[in-house]
Amino acid sequence: MSFEDFDLDPRCLSVLKAQKIVEPTAIQDEAIPPVLEGRDVVGIAQTGTGKTLAFTLPSLTRLAGGPLKKSMMLVLTPTRELAQQVHQIVDLIGRPLGIGSVCIYGGVGFDKQIKALRQGRAVIVATPGRLLDHMGRGNVKFNDLETLVLDEADRMLDMGFLPDIRRILRKLPRERQTLMFSATFPDEIVRLTQDMLDEPVRISVGAIAKPVDTVRQKLYTVHRVEKTGLLIKILKEEHIDSALIFLRTKIRTDRVAKALKHAGFKAQAIHGDRSQIQRQRALDGFRSGRYKMLIATDVAARGLDIEGISHVFNYDIPDNPDDYIHRIGRTARANAEGDAITFVCPDEMLALAALEKALGHNLPQEEWEGKVPVLTLFHPENKETARSRRVSRRRGRSLLRRR
Ligand code: AMP
Question: Pocket of ligand 1, candidates 30, 79, 305: which has the most ligand atoms within 8 Å of its Cβ, to mutate?
Answer without folding.
Answer: 305
